[in-house]
Design brief:
Length: 270
Amino acid sequence: MPPKVRPLRLTTLLYAFMTPKEKIDMQRLPSHIAIIMDGNGRWAKEKGEDRLYGHLHGVESVRNIVEGAAEIGIKYLTLYAFSTENWDRPEYEVSGLMELLIDTIRNEVPTLNKNNIRLHVIGAVDMLPDAAKNELKEALNETASNTGLNLIMALSYSSRWEITDAVKHIAADVKAGKLMPEDISQDTVKQYLTTKDFPDPELMIRTSGEYRISNFLLYQLAYAELYFTPTRWPDFRKENLYTAIHDFQSRERRFGKTGEQVKKEEPTNL
Ligand code: IPE
Ligand code: IPE
Ligand code: MG
């Protein structure tokens, strides 16, 4: 018997020619996407260049991804730009990164305003150089009334730092009689985190082929879908973001329940 050949359906053929953006279901977008922007150093080294060259090109990706997220109506985008642990990198790399940060904030504010994007920062910003703190302060003020995408930059951020800080504040409030230990709920804990104003991310993307969280939003990512790609951050573009969102939409989010239960229910959001 000759093998059965299935006729190629027109819809299958059309689907193959659709762009990642066209494949997204715009009614089921994640409201918050968090990204670990990794691989700048390796990208540069592979080109025989200095690591800072990679960081410089990484800014192009930030621009492209912020634009891409705003374009489809994502409400929150958190970008991990510099971790608490990154302070231990060689002096020249840290100061190069800080200079790049200052220049980028200064140059990007008009574009943020043009696109109705509001900037937020999470992390131990006190540790940043004064010039960076000042630029940030201005950028936060100047974009404060924008109502489109909320762009959250994680700078000098680590989750263990954040949770430790939250515990200190909770302890201080208990000591001052403002909070009773028996009244502490999961929601109370959330209120003491730097992310209290934002919903938890539904999708977390890490570029550059590393399969770890590296101290990023440990509490908030409890039920996030994780997406890992080998693409180095300087090569990551809107199309890659849209592919990740499309992949996210193919997953079944169960929040501890059974598949049968979630199929019957409305989508849950923690
Ligand atoms: C991410 O790229 C940017 C920062 C952490 C500031 P890396 O600098 O970590 O690049 P790799 O991982 O060494 O390639
Ligand atoms: C995580 O990347 C931090 C940022 C992207 C800002 P790292 O490159 O610092 O993380 P590890 O060291 O590979 O875990
Ligand atoms: Mg890295």
